[in-house]
Amino acid sequence: AYEIYQCDWSSDVCSSDLIALGDFDAAAMHAANIGKAKGNGPAWEAYVRGRSSYAADHHDEALTALREASMAASATDAPIPQLHLYLGHVLTRLTQYDEAAMEYRRELELFPQSLDAYEGVAAMYHAADRDADIESVVKDLLEAHPTVAGYAVAVRIWTTAGERRTAEALRGEARRRFKGDPALPLLGRAR
C-alpha cells in the first residue's frame, strides 16, 4: 500500500503518483496541501476531480473539471503534467478531435518529453480516420526522442494503426541503431 506520509506535501509528483495508483481521495488531500505550499491548489483539486471522473468513464464530468483545472493552472502560470494529455483523451472519447489535437499539442509544448502525448495524438488521429497525419507525429516523436523509448512508442503507434510492416521496420532500425542497449526489450517482439 502506498503510504501518504512518504509524500513531499509540496511536490506535484506525489499527487501524480497517487492518481496513477487510483487513490483519488489521497490525491485530493494532497492537492489541497499543494495549494497551501504553491498557491495552485484549485488547479490541482480540479485536475484530481477530472482524473477521477475520467477513470470512472464519466467523460462529460471529466471534461468540465479538466477545463476548470486548465483555466486555474494558466492563471497561476503553473502547468500541471498530463493535464492537457487527459483533456486530449477525454475530447477524443467525446469525438471532439480538433480540440483533442490542440490539447495534445499543448501538452507537448509544455512537456516535450511526454511520450504519452505523442502516443495520444496518434491514437486520436487513428480514431478520427486521419492515419495520414500519424506519419508526421512519428517523425516529430523520433526527432524529439531518438531513443529506444521513443522508438518503442513509435512501434506501438504504427502497430495500433494497423501498420505492422512499418512497425517492424522501425523495430529493426532501433535494434540496429541501439545494439546492446539494455532498454531494447521495450521494443517488444515481432508478431
List keywords for this structure.
0% strand; globular
Distance between the termini: 36 Å
Helix/strand order: HHHHHHHHHH
Assembly of the depicted chains: single chain
Helical fraction equals 55-70%
The chain-level structural class is mainly alpha
Largest sheet: none
What is the overall pLDDT average?
86
Radius of gyration, in angstroms, nearest whole number: 18 Å
Number of helices: 10
The low-pLDDT segments are 1-10
Say how many strands there are. 0
Dominant shape = globular
Question: Strand portion, in percent?
Answer: under 5%
Task: Report a brief summary of the structure.
With 191 residues, the chain is mainly alpha-helical.
Question: Can you give a write-up of this model?
Answer:
With 191 residues, the protein is mainly alpha-helical. The protein contains ten helices and no strands. It has helices at 12-20, 24-38, 41-55, 59-76, 83-93, 97-110, 115-127, 134-144, 148-160, 164-177. Helix 2 (24-38) runs antiparallel to helix 3. It is globular.
